[in-house]
Structure formats: C-alpha cells, structure tokens
Amino acid sequence: xxxxxxxxxxxxxxxxxATMTARSLDRSVDPRGKTIECPENQTPxxxxxxxxxxxxxxxxIIYDKMPMFFGQMMMEEYCDEPCISFAGVGDAVxxxxxxxxxxxxSGATLDKHLKAIWLEGGGGGATYGEEESYDLAAAYYASSAxxxxxxxxxxxxxxxxxxxxxxxxxxxxxxxxxxDVRDITKEHDxxxxxxxxxxxxxxxRFHVFHLKKAYDTSSDARILRQWQTLLGExxxxxxxxxxxxxxxxxxxxxxTSETRTLEQYLADMEERGQTTERVSQxxxxxxxxxxxxxxxxxx
Length: 299
Fold this sequence. Notes:
By secondary structure, the protein is α/β, with parallel strands linked by helices. It has a single domain (2-260), classed as von Willebrand factor, type A domain (Rossmann fold), CATH 3.40.50. It has eleven helices and ten strands. It has helices at 2-11, 57-76, 109-116, 125-128, 134-142, 170-176, 195-203, 218-231, 245-257, 262-271, 276-293; strands at 36-37, 43-50, 82-89, 99-101, 131-132, 146-147, 154-160, 163-164, 206-213, 236-239. The strands form three sheets. The chain has a six-stranded mixed β-sheet with strand order 4-3-2-7-9-10, with helices on both faces. A two-stranded parallel sheet has the order 1-6. Helix 2 links the parallel strand 2 and strand 3 (82-89). Helix 1 packs across helix 2, helix 2 (57-76) runs parallel beside helix 9 (245-257) and helix 5 (134-142) crosses helix 7 (195-203). This is VWFA domain-containing protein. It comes from Noctiluca scintillans.
C-alpha cells in the first residue's frame, strides 16, 4: 500500500501517538463495578496487554502499535465495524492494578482509552511460579459486566509471556471482577472452577488468541503447552518480534472472518511495504490457523 495508504489508515483511526501518561490506576479503567457495552451493529475486539515487568520493552512497543491496528482494520475491512476495548493485565499476587479495562470505542476515542492504561511494570511470574492474572481479564469479559452483540462473535487477543493460574483464587475475582462465580462460568462454584472453565466461557463470546512472547527455556515449553490446551494450538501465536503484533492480529481477524485467505493477506502485507522477512514470519505464525479454518490459499 505504500506511504500514502498507510497515512490513510492512520487517518481513519486514532492519531497513532497515544503517548503513555498514566502513572497509577486511572478511574476510567478500574474494572471494579464497571460495565462496558459494544453496540449491536459492531464487532467487539479486545486487546488485553500484559503490562508486567518481564515483558520489558515489548509492552511499550505493542502499546504504540495499537492505533495502526484499528486504522488498518477499517481501511482493509477485515471485519464489520470494529469496536475495541483495551485491557491491562498484571499479577493479582503483587500488583496494584492486576486488571484494567477500557470502554469499547473506535476512532479518535481510542487514544484516550490507551492513554488511561497504566504500564505498571510489576508482575510476579519469576518469583511466584511463572503465572500472571490473565484469568482475571478472561473472567471479566466473560461476565455480565460486558455486553456484546449476541449474533456477532468478537475477537479477544491476549499478549504475554507467562502462564495462567490453573486454580483461580476466588478472593481476587471478588475484588476485581464479580461477587458470584456463576456470573462467569454459570455451572461452577468457587471451590471447583478452573482457568479452563473461564476460557471456555470466554470462547462462547469471542474468538480467543494468545500472542506469546517466545523464550527458549524448558519452562517456556510448559507454558506454551498450557495455553495450547486452553485455546487450541492454532490460536496460540508465538511472537519473535513485538513489531509484528499488528500484522499477526490483523491476519487472525482476516482469516477467521474469512475476508482474506492467507495468500491474500500476505499480499496485503506486501502492498503496505512490509519486508520479505516479516511476511515470511507472519506466514509461518498463521499457517496453523489458516489450515484449521481451511482458508489458506485463493480458490
């Protein structure tokens, strides 16, 4: 697409300069008692960003890429009328803000929503057992605090590098999400429900993807397997470079919505000036998803 089309993409979305300003939990993204709604005629999209310290510069890079995500989505029409909610994910064991949630929005309002997210930089994965509170975000968006169109399945992206707390700690959920577990999973009580139950409920509303920061360690292999068990292998998308996050998210939406084959989507990337190396990386990352959908190449 070149520079002209890139500029057009940014013009239909937010400014592209959502400078980080939050230095504490902003009231507008405090999930406690908060309800959010995606309008009936729009497609709900959630981007839940791991904002813990172990993500390093990745959090800032991913944060900075989000305006382009909306702009390209609108210009290429990968899905109908996208409406985005941002979430910040930390660790309920040790963070002041283990969950932050913005309203759904589009266009210029996304700048304001992004600026409210606090990149706290805490987390306890390395200290407390290589987990973060991704389950809190999943539970919130699976609960009645969030209203989404019944006839339009949305998209839910979680970026991160750690595993999920397999056995949720109910007091965290009571503090940050809701008072009744049945509001999340319908069929379980606080003594028996698991991370799997939460993500199963979430998947009834959204196509759920985990964009995982890669490490070359044995513990990372265990974490990868956990996510693959929760979501299915094709929906765990491993990132070697945080700068590819928008390309991978856009591709996941385009393939799942069946507005592009993988071949067509890679051609879109080439048109907007992406390098051969980046296109090859994205092709490899999305190949499993394209195969599962049966939408890998043009008819």
